[in-house]
């Protein structure tokens, strides 16, 4: 039998409720939770000896159950004569002191200040079905009557789903009256039973509106939120912030209900925030793997990503997380990233903190009381040491942090907090520094200091950088592209001239400077803060062969192209990011691949030179347009896709006859590598130049 209204407007209809209770008969209807689900919040805000008015009582057992545990001064009213008759008959002998009256709550017969509590379980939701003028006027009369019959210090306790228009109306009305407004979450969707009755995926809230004595001229407004997992309420600065916090709770509950019902919802992620500060503490990604055969031990697992490694492809990209889930062998894997600026005391404390919350994300069909394993890399939460925090007028807030990677190596990273999951620049620390950091960490474990507290690294941080090691795959590919220059075995003795646009931590121009002793490098950087960062934290330094120009790369190249003594660089490299996150191309900014500007780039490149560009473009149509524009300016165009990343490295040359087949290209890369591996030159043995060019294709 369908007892839920076809349209929400029917909730406000007297005829609907008369028909509803005739069909329903004497069976109680508990839409918003049973007494057991609500008793904690009810007992918190109602004292046993207080006089309670229940408006829109219906045939709920709530009043009866309150009466049976000692709340005996209860008056119930409802607009339906049918239900009032039912309730009188049901309670006449067992609950003689509880009364049931047919009454319109917008026109109550009670004297002023009769009650200490007005209890409303879903009635405001039933009346406030829309925001039409007639409906709002009816609700205004209802709430005015609630205020009239309550004593000063009394509470309007309204159980509601807190839909946006309902929360807005209730909070707005009572805050204007000078009442204290508190919203208390009383039930999450996982506590509700879906089998017996139609129920809701939204969580249930209690509005607790406390009547204060009016103070003329007072502008004090009190807004508070109390959630299930927080014992004390949190004070919020405005009604808008309260509404936002409630929406966040509703979205989370809806998401949990969807995850319980079905798998394969696509990419699902959410933040869990600190209850004290509201700052994100954990970022969770839910990954379903339908290929895993169900068994008792393969349902669900949690994977804690070591600090600082959340940007790696395996943990930071959808495809990587899918591969991780497949290798772990669970139907559902939840990855958990730890945020900088938060203190973590170890794996056990994280497990204790997360155990209840992550169970809300468990898949359907998981056996009750199933133990859920917490996994990690080596059972460790990793090390993240924030060395420096600052603000740039151009790049915004940024941090310099040292993190522990694979094989106990430590890496220094530059992170722009506007895009905190992207490593802007990275360098490996020398092994002896890593060793000292580990010893320091063991000592600090005893003190339980925050993981983000700066450690005592060497006084001159730049001196600890391994300058022979390129961390970024796209930098490795860009260096490998130098094999496209003729006679690679002679490049160490050739006076190469290079223009590098985009300094970052300086590792790319620094590698060229150190490995090609006759080279001269002009680096262009628009943000003066980045030069300071590169110099202080990444071991970068200028010399007679390395000059940094603080300028907009567009202006700098335009000036060179228009000058009388126009230079002709052997190599031009673009590794410059866009500050506009709304674009489908984050590297380079679109103006750098504009057709007119490319002609200027072309004019300052030597005839046999190479223009190397780091392209990060998620918009396929835009990418095709960029490639077509580059091809128009540079007849010979190679593309090298970086595996597991969006980056593509483009190698552009002016002479089509310079075209090399893959075997020739690999042979030249091997010749260049043999030259660079000569004794006395530092070289990373894992870096094989020819491997960087194996997958190059010609556009």
Describe the structure.
The protein is built from 20 helices and 27 strands. It has 699 residues and is an alpha/beta fold. A 9-stranded mixed sheet has the order 3-2-1-4-5-7-6-8-9, with helices on both faces. Strands 19, 20, 21, 22, 23, 24, 25, 26 and 27 form a 9-stranded mixed sheet that branches. It has a 5-stranded mixed sheet with strand order 10-11-13-12-14. The relative contact order is 0.06. Residues 52-147 form the Methyltransferase domain.
Q: Give me the secondary-structure category.
A: alpha/beta
Unreliable stretches covering 5 or more consecutive residues? 1-14, 24-29, 189-200, 445-460
Percent of residues in helical segments?
25-40%
CATH architecture of the largest domain: 3-Layer(aba) Sandwich
Q: Tell me the domain tally.
A: 3
Largest sheet: 9 strands, mixed
- The number of helical elements comes to 20
What's the quick description here?
By secondary structure, the protein is an alpha/beta fold. The model is unreliable at 1-14, 24-29, 189-200 and 445-460 (pLDDT under 50).
């Amino acid at each position: 039998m369908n007892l839920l209204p076809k349209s929400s407007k029917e909730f406000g209809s007297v005829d609907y409720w008369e028909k509803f209770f005739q069909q329903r008969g004497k069976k109680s209807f508990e839409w918003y939770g049973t007494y057991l689900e609500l008793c904690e919040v009810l007992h918190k805000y109602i004292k046993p000896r207080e006089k309670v008015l229940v408006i829109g009582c219906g045939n709920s057992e709530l009043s009866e159950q309150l009466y049976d545990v000692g709340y005996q001064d209860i008056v119930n009213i409802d607009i339906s004569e049918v239900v009032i008759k039912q309730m009188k008959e049901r309670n006449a002998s067992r609950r003689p002191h509880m009364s049931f009256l047919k009454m319109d709550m917008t026109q109550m017969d009670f004297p002023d200040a009769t009650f200490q509590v007005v209890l409303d379980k879903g009635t405001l939701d039933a009346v406030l079905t829309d925001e039409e003028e007639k409906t709002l006027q009816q609700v205004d009369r209802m709430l005015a009557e609630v205020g009239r019959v309550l004593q000063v210090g009394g509470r309007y306790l309204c159980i509601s789903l807190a839909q946006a228009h309902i929360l807005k109306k209730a909070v707005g009305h009572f805050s204007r009256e000078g009442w204290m407004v508190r919203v208390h979450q009383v039930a999450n969707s996982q506590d509700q039973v879906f089998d017996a009755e139609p129920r809701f995926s939204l969580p249930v809230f209690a509005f607790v509106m406390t009547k204060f004595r009016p103070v003329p001229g007072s502008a004090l407004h009190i807004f508070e939120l109390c959630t299930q997992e927080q014992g004390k309420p949190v004070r919020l600065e405005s009604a808008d912030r309260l509404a936002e916090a409630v929406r966040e709770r509703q979205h989370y509950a809806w998401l949990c209900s969807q995850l319980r019902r079905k798998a394969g919802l696509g990419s699902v992620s959410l933040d869990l925030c600190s209850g004290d500060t509201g700052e994100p503490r954990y970022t969770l990604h839910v990954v379903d793997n339908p290929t895993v055969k169900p068994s008792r031990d393969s349902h669900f697992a949690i994977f804690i990503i070591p600090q600082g490694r959340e940007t790696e492809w395996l943990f930071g990209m959808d495809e990587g997380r899918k591969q991780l889930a497949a290798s772990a062998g669970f139907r559902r894997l939840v990855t958990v990233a730890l945020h900088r600026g938060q203190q973590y005391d170890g794996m056990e404390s994280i497990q204790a903190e997360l155990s209840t919350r992550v169970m809300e994300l468990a898949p359907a069909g998981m056996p009750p009381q199933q133990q859920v394993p917490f996994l990690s890399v080596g059972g460790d939460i990793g090390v993240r040491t924030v060395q420096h925090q600052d603000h740039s007028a151009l790049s915004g807030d940024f941090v310099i942090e040292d993190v522990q990677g694979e094989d106990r190596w430590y890496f220094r990273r530059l992170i722009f907090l506007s895009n905190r999951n992207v490593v802007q620049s990275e360098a490996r620390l020398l092994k002896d520094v890593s060793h000292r950091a580990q010893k320091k960490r063991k000592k600090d474990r005893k003190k339980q200091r925050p993981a983000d507290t700066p450690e005592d690294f060497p006084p001159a941080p730049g001196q600890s950088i391994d300058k022979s090691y390129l961390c970024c795959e796209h930098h490795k590919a860009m260096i490998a592209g130098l094999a496209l220059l003729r006679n690679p075995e002679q490049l160490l003795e050739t006076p190469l001239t290079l223009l590098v646009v985009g300094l970052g931590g300086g590792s790319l121009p620094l590698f060229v400077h150190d490995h090609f002793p006759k080279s001269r490098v002009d680096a262009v950087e628009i943000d003066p803060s980045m030069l300071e960062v590169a110099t202080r934290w990444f071991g970068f330094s200028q010399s007679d062969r390395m000059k940094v120009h603080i300028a907009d790369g567009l202006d700098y190249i335009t000036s060179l192209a228009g000058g009388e003594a126009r230079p002709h660089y052997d190599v031009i490299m673009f590794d410059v990011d866009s500050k506009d996150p709304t674009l489908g191309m984050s590297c380079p900014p679109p103006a750098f691949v504009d057709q007119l500007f490319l002609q200027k780039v072309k004019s300052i490149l030597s005839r046999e030179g190479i223009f190397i560009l780091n392209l990060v473009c998620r918009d396929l149509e835009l990418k095709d347009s960029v490639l077509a524009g580059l091809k128009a300016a540079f007849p010979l165009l190679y593309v090298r896709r970086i595996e597991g990343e969006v980056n593509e490295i483009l190698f552009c040359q002016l002479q089509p006859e310079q075209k090399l087949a893959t075997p020739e290209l690999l042979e030249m890369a091997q010749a260049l590598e043999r030259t660079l591996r000569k004794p006395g030159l530092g070289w990373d043995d894992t870096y094989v130049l020819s491997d960087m060019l194996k997958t190059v294709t010609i556009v």
